[in-house]
Amino acid sequence: MLKAAHSFDALMEFTARPQAVFVRGQGAYLWDDTGKRYLDFIQGWAVNCLGHAPASLADALAAQAKLLISPSPAYHNAASLKLAKALVDQSCFDQVFFTSSGAEANEGAIKLARKYGAVHKNGAFEIITFEGGFHGRTLATMSASGKKTFEPLFEPKVAGFRKATLNDLESVKQLINGNTVAIMLEPIQGESGVWPATDQFLKELRALTLEHGLLLIFDEIQTGMGRTGKLFYYEHTDIAPDVMTLGKGIGGGVPLAALLATEKASCFEHGDEGGTYKGNPLMCAAGLAIMEEVGKPAFLEAATEAGLHLESELQKLSARHGLGEVRGRGLLLGLNLKLPIGAAVVQEAFEAGLLVNSPRPDALRFMPALNVTREEIAEMIDGLDGILTKVGAARRVA
Ligand code: PLP
Q1: Which residue spans within 46-134 are E strands per DSSP?
Q2: Is the per-residue pLDDT at 397 higher than 80?
Q3: Average pLDDT value for the chain
Q4: How many other C-beta atoms are found inside a 10 Å radius of the C-beta of residue 396?
Q5: Residue 137 has what DSSP assignment?
Q6: Residues 370, 383: contact at Cβ < 8 Å?
Q7: Distance from the CA of 253 to the center of ligand 1, in angstroms?
Q8: Which of 17, 27, 92, 117 pairs as cysteine with 124 (C-beta 3.0–4.6 A)?
Q9: Domains assigned to the chain
């Protein structure tokens, strides 16, 4: 019997996806198996910081694959040692634990906080997180997240997370008790629609955590690695967290994430953490290639410049179509559509060969490669302009 080119039935379905099958990517563009080209402003979900298939990443992976792929986590490997050193040298942290996904890095941060509570705070274990926050899809990170649609899922939740309101210090203060060990947040809530914590709020949180002897944990899985124009988001502020998680951009497209901690917070003992792929040299070699480019001041300046340009073009687009504000920082930007037309815009854009994301019905999110060019931004804005006109006209007729 002749089989269809692709069968989707053998995959567990976890979300609605278009039927297109992607086979190739280069820079800002993706191609499906019919040869159709798409301009990609999602980039692996804010992952491909150098765009699709950058030569430096491909070369680093190929070289490492020929050298050593997995000596086992029981032994050190050169790539993980070098990457840990590079991250420590460029941040306020002293030690690193590598994982394969952001959720695992956050799971590690949660465990580290509980360990810190056990060792230094009389068994305190509660972590204050935030409504609208997203920290991953393991049971503990879903429990830590403040995503409404997670609430009925997989009960009972992991205990020990109390939810405050972003940018509302009083709501945080009210949740602090003798069991509290840490406060954990994304400096910009990405998945819930690009909602930045204010610099003032972050500063107040730092003061509050110092006052109560709590750890301050930044989930920089989306905001880190140059996404907002600094290597790490906390560098925009004049505070430093005790613990930070990185993911997405750190591997430039391969499964790599990290948990970083200051000397004071870094309290794991043998047996507390581990895992087959933790610090895998193939992934760490990719991380090194990314750090080498993204960590350069000139690269970050260019990303900042590109972010400002995208922001101003989105503002003009918004004014032309009577839409709302542009939120976010650097190349993590959200556009308030004012109306629940996000899904329709995404669908029309896809048909037109443009990939954008709608994290909530009334918003679009833009997370292009950090080396996105003015020409690519112009092409995206042009495409979106036409789509917004079309979707707007359809709404007026309906
Ligand atoms: N934390 C934040 C802020 C994220 O944006 C994400 C993913 O979108 C995660 C954690 C989870 O990362 P991963 O999907 O790699 O497990």
Answers
A1: 95-99, 126-130
A2: no
A3: 96
A4: 7
A5: S
A6: no
A7: 13
A8: 117
A9: 55-294 (3.40.640.10), 299-397 (3.90.1150.10)
**Ligand 1 probe mutation, 43, 47, 100, 134, most atoms within 8 A of CB:** 134
CB 51 within 8 A of CB 28: yes
CA of 178 from ligand 1 middle (Å) equals 29
Report the separation in Å between the CA atom of 222 and the middle of ligand 1, taken as the mean of its atom positions: 7
CB-CB contact of 303 with 231 (8 Å): no
For a ligand 1 pocket test, name from 49, 147, 248 the mutation site with the most ligand atoms within 8 angstroms of its C-beta.
Answer: 248
Report field, pTM of the whole predicted structure over 0.90 = yes
Burial-class residue 15 by CB neighbours within 10 Å (0-12, 13-18, 19+). Answer: exposed
* Gap from CA of 20 to ligand 1 centroid (Å): 24
Burial class of residue 117 in the structure, from the number of CB atoms within 10 Å of its CB (0-12 exposed, 13-18 middle, 19+ buried)? buried
Name the band, by pLDDT with cuts 50, 70 and 90, for residue 3: very low
Q: Which of 47, 98, 135 to mutate to test the pocket of ligand 1 (most atoms within 8 A of CB)?
A: 135
Alpha carbon separation from 331 to 5, 144, 302 (Å, rounded) = 37, 26, 11
Q: Let me know: does 265 contact 63? Beta carbons within 8 Å.
A: no
Closest CA to 371 of 258, 293, 317, 271: 293
Q: Whose CA is nearest to atom 13 of ligand 1?
A: 102
